[in-house]
Amino acid sequence: MVAKGSAAKARAGTTVENVEVARIFRELADLLEIQGANPFRLRAYRNAARSIEELPESVDAIARSDPDRLCELPGIGKNLAGKIVEIVTSGTLAALREVSRELPRGLTTLMGVRGLGAKRARALYDGLGIHTLKQLERAARAGRIRDLAGFGEKTEQHILQELAARSPGEQRVLRSVAAQYGETYLTYLRALPGVLQAEIAGSYRRCRETVGDLDILASVKPRTPLVGHFVGYPEVEEVMAQGPTKASVRLRGGVQVDLRVLDQESYGAGLYYFTGSKAHNIAVRRIGQKLGLKVNEYGVFRGKRRIAGRTEADVFRVVGLPWIPPELREDRGEIDAARTGMLPRLVELGDIRGDVQMHTTASDGRNTLEEMVEAVRTLGYEYLAITDHSPALRMVQGLDRDGFRAQMKHIERLNARLRHVTILRAGEIDILAHGALDLDDETLAEMDLVVVSIHSGFDLPEPKQTERVLRALDHRSVDILGHPTGRILNRRSPIALDLERVLRAAAERGIMLEVNAQPDRLDLDDVSVRAAIEVGVRLVISSDAHAAAELRFMRWGVDQARRGWARKEDIANTLPFREFRKLLHARR
DNA sequence: GCCGTTTTCGGCCCGACTGTTTTCAGTCG
Description:
The protein has 25 helices and 17 strands. Helix 2 (18-35) packs antiparallel against helix 3 (39-53) and helix 4 (59-65) crosses helix 5. It is globular and about 80 Å long. It binds one DNA strand through helix 3, helix 5, helix 8, helix 10 and strand 6.
């Protein structure tokens, strides 16, 4: 199916997406694994897939214009460069067709079932001819799987459970939701006497926008029965595994939580190890190896002697690196940066001086302007922009020209008597179908700050969508492009946009891009944040609050920006009000 | 299949738990 879709696209003359190339490589790796191919070859395909996925520019464009440059991408050599060119030009991959002559493509979906890997997929196919989830379920129900060598009754039951559990809960959990589950669990665990330290590690600690599961790490005094306490948590629905130092449970609501218990001497090494990412850990372990050291979750060892483990900083120190913030640990260049003293000093929540997108009851907000101002004051910000919607957004009753003018007058009166905080007269103006703005030029020119966003026409093809956005950015009153890709996590894909061109245009015109901090938007994403900074685009982090309580979403946006290597100076709303205002004036 | 402050050949991260095994393979993170 993958190859067919690509072929159709290639014929239509449009580009093959990076994620699609990555998916083909992953599928090929899975099939090769089932065939029993050299494991390092599989790793090469999977590394390449990841590398392509994280590439902020189009691999299709590189393949067409300058194929030699493909070999400069991490994990891509001559062979894989050739395969990328083949995918981009023909839409298919001969190697994939070849493997699927021997093995049905569907076999790889079996590997998506927890507990089934390549070996068992192969056994299921060879023994029972199973290559779809439906066949798998039927065979399990009929009790035919238990007779296969290496399988048993328990495995069969487990497969049925996994199949039953999977349909609704395949999505990753939003970081903000994971935070609620995780922090409560943590409080419960810490309350057990004998628990010395406990933290959430994994992708949650790395501040990824979504998490697959939660990894909790704890150190205890000897003989503390933490695993028992862990599985006894009232919200636990199912205990999936339980050993002396490790356990996995599934909570009501479907979130999986893993616990690892270590003693204090190993806590730092364990925290480091289970924070990941896997790719980062492997890279650092390799450095350790070259120094004659063994790095594992219990510490760093020279021979049998542990030379580090109590803290993360110790682990980094003995392999010759400074401590690297978890947000950067993705093996995207942070290790080289650390080695050469080039790690960025990342922006922090405390650096934020203003919030420049929020809504009031004048459009779709739930609190009045005065209530929002008061809430902003409590947070200690110096300024805020009120950015109610424009008229095109019918369903929320956006403001029209007169509405905005009345609101601006109102704000002027409020500003006259406010101290310590200034309200910017602003709006979130819709970008209409062909890139025109949803408010007259005169009113726009009177505003202190103009955010423009797309709220309709999400499905335009890339060239049209890109032209539409570029045209909107041509408007001289525009200051900020709001939630630039329009994606909603787990619900709506990003619009098709040539982000490179948009970034270049924004850089030229001094237009800022938003990192929208709504936990289901987090738009721009981490890779795009970094790409924006690299071409010199200034960013803002905005809560886009639709209620006073949502002003606190700012933290999710800051996390996201940090993952994109953003420093304080990359984020315009870390500026004091005078300087931020100067920045706005300089544009006009 | 990639990659190189030991290398263009010979490496490529490491340990816990489960279930099916009589000492370990498979899977996962």
